[in-house]
Every structure is written in C-alpha cells, then in structure tokens.
Amino acid sequence: MTADPLSATDRSTLRRKRERGSFDRAVVNAILDEGLVCHVALAGDGQPVITPMTYARIGDALYVHGAPGNRTLRSLADGDEACVIVTLLDALVLARSAFHHSMNYRSVVLFGRAESVEDLDQKRTASAALLRHLAPGREHDARMPTDAELRSTLMVRFPISEGSAKVRTGPPLDDPEDMDLGIWAGEIPLHVVAGTARPDPGLGTAVALPAYAEHYPERPAR
Ligand SMILES: Cc1cc2nc3c(=O)[nH]c(=O)nc-3n(C[C@H](O)[C@H](O)[C@H](O)COP(=O)(O)OP(=O)(O)OC[C@H]3O[C@@H](n4cnc5c(N)ncnc54)[C@H](O)[C@@H]3O)c2cc1C
Predict the structure, then answer these.
(1) How far is Cα of residue 23 from the mean position of the Cα atoms in its chain?
(2) Hey, whose CA ends up nearest to atom 21 of ligand 1?
(3) Cβ < 6 Å from ligand 1: which residues?
C-alpha cells in the first residue's frame, strides 16, 4: 500500500475552487472508507451510464462485485475507462441569497481502468472486505461464499491512483451587502443514522442481535 498522493493529471486536477481539492491519499481513503455507496460512470458506446454500487477499499484499490451478466461490471472487467465517485453529504448550507446556497460535502472522483479478480482467495478476501465495509464484524458472522458462489460472482478491482478529493466546510459565503438582510442563514448538519434493527421474520428467538446491528456506527462518527 502506498502513501503517495493521487496523480494530478489533466482530467483529475481541480479548476473550480481548487483550494477545496486534495490529492492526499489519507483524505481520499477516509472519504472512501466512510461512504457506503459509490457511483460508477462509463461512457459506453456514446451512451453515458452511471450505476450506484456497494464497494469496499483494500489498500490502493476499490472492489465492486455482482452478477456476471451485470453490464457495468462486465465493462469494468473488460478494462473500459471509468470514473468512480463517492459523495458524503455533511450539511445543507442556507445563505441569505438564493445565489450562495450550497452544501458541505466530502467527495472523491477517481479515474482509471479496472481489472477482473479471478483468483478465488482474492475474491474471498474482497468479499470479506465488502461485508466489513457494510457492517464491521459481519465478516465473522455471515456464512462466507462457497467456491461455486465466488465463481458465479464478477469481482473487479479499481485502482485508487488517479483522482482527487474535494471538501467544502463552513458557513455560507454571502455577499457583504446581504449580511444585514435579517434572513436566517447557517448550516443544517446531516448524518447517516441507523434506525432500530428489525430482525428477519424467519429468525428464531435463539439468535442474538449482534452488537454491530444494535449499535450501528453513525457516519460520520461524532
Ligand atoms: C453534494 C455536492 C453537491 C454539489 N452541488 C453543486 C452544484 O449544485 N453546483 C455546482 O456548480 N457544483 C456543485 N458541487 C461541486 C461539483 O462537484 C464540482 O466540483 C463543481 O461544480 C466544479 O465542476 P467543474 O466541472 O468546473 O470542475 P473542475 O474543477 O473543472 O473539475 C476538474 C477535476 O477536478 C476534480 N473534481 C471536480 N469536482 C470534484 C468533486 N466534487 N470531488 C472530487 N473531485 C472533483 C475531478 O477530478 C474533475 O475531473 C457539488 C458537489 C457535491 C459533492
């Protein structure tokens, strides 16, 4: 695993509000590890498609998986150029003027070509990482995939090498002449908060609720 910053190429270099940008791998990894959903964008044959997917990070790569017939995964496995993003929404930013309304966020945009993971042990490791990313500890409880299940899963590895993070924090940035308008302005923080776990109706009473389901961690942790 490298600590090197992500590559600042022509397509990954921020032009708008570049002071909000970062190529720092620790910043990028923290955002990737907190997010639950990535969006995978492909250009297709002139038809752009963006697909939301679950993912996990191991070292310098993201793993996404699904059915072998999945078009997005097949395209990734074929090595087509792709763009993967993860967005964390931290607050709504209400300004005095309509013009300056905004959001506080942390986001990552990655570019690159994925590769198919064929080795069953690597697929098993990635499957555990996907479970752990969803609910830390789940990888020790769930029945892990059989070789047959692994063979019928398309797993792809996407490099975390070219891309950037962008982070907005803080209050609205109103124009000086609007500051005394007497209109409320500020931030409304947003968090992903888990509700009370609902046991599957088919579950016997002998099966205890695991700690990660009873106390699912808030994202971001406060
Ligand atoms: C939740 C959310 C809501 C947003 N809402 C708006 C909105 O309504 N209007 C608006 O103009 N902008 C919005 N943004 C910011 C938006 O993502 C772009 O950063 C911004 O619009 C500049 O776009 P651009 O094409 O000029 O970027 P450029 O700076 O030209 O982009 C060049 C490169 O910089 C990197 N980059 C750009 N944006 C991001 C990013 N967000 N995260 C990581 N890397 C990035 C990419 O590698 C990109 O290829 C929002 C961002 C988030 C996360």
Answers:
(1) 16
(2) 16
(3) 11-16, 87, 89, 103, 105, 107-109, 163-166
In the chain, DSSP assigns E strands to 21-22, 37-42, 49-54, 56-58, 61-66, 81-94, 102-113, 115-116, 154-159, 162-168, 186-189
Residues 6+ apart with CB under 8 A from 222: 191
Q: Whose CA is nearest to atom 25 of ligand 1?
A: 16
Q: What is the pLDDT of residues 179-193, one digit of tens each?
A: 999 999 999 999 999
Distance from C-alpha of 8 to C-alpha of 188, rounded to nearest angstrom? 33
Question: In which band, very low, low, confident or very high, does the pLDDT at 44 lie, cut at 50, 70 and 90?
Answer: confident
pLDDT digits (tens, 9 = 90+) for 104-141: 999 999 999 999 999 999 999 999 999 999 999 999 99
CB–CB of 76/158 below 8 Å?
Answer: yes
Distance in Å, CA 7 to ligand 1 centroid: 17
Q: Which residues contact 136 (CB under 8 A, 6 or more apart)?
A: 212, 217
Q: What's the predicted TM-score (pTM) here? A: 0.95
Q: Torsions phi, psi of 52, nearest 5?
A: -75, 140
Instruction: Report residue 63 as tokens.
Output: 């793993």
Task: Give how far the C-alpha of residue 97 lies from the chain's centroid of Cα atoms, to the nearest Å.
Answer: 31
Indicate the helix (H) or strand (E) that contains 7: none
Q: For position 222, what pLDDT does the model report?
A: 52
